[in-house]
Amino acid sequence: MYYIVDTDKSFAEAASDLEQAVTQNNFGVLHIHDLGATLRSKGIAFSEECKVFEVCNPMQASKVMSIDMRLNMALPCRISVYTEAGKVKLGYIKPAEMLIGLSSDPALATIAGEVEDSMLKILADAK
């Protein structure tokens, strides 16, 4: 269900390269949540870094919601850049596996596969 890759880049480089890879692959960055900074701002001693990128391909999102509007709750896609035990990682939850539990419509499986192909390319480009 999870797809995670390690990178030799710094956290800042990986985050910057991910943002660039998202746009180069016809997705847009809707928002970036800096979860590490948010936790620290609340007085929590959190030593890791974690940025969650909300990304969307409008054409794919419109196809999904045209089939089942309830799936808006599973959108947008999220890609994370984070540190774990000194290693920088990039990852996401596979859309095809997530949608299997939410709908049995075969058209959604096709769309999810297309999105997954794009997400794999984004991570490969950012790595």
Can you describe what's shown?
The mean pLDDT is 94. The protein starts with a strand and ends with a helix. 22% of the residues are buried. It is of the alpha+beta class and 127 residues long. The longest helix is centred in the C-terminal third of the chain and has 21 residues, at 106-126. Helix content is 46%, strand content 28%. It has one domain (2-126): TATA-Binding Protein. The chain has helices at residues 11-24, 35-41, 58-67, 95-100, 106-126, and strands spanning 2-7, 28-34, 50-56, 77-84, 87-93. The chain has 5 helices and 5 strands, in the order E-H-E-H-E-H-E-E-H-H. It has a 5-stranded antiparallel β-sheet.
In short:
The protein has 127 residues and is α+β, with helices and mostly antiparallel strands. It is built from five helices and five strands.
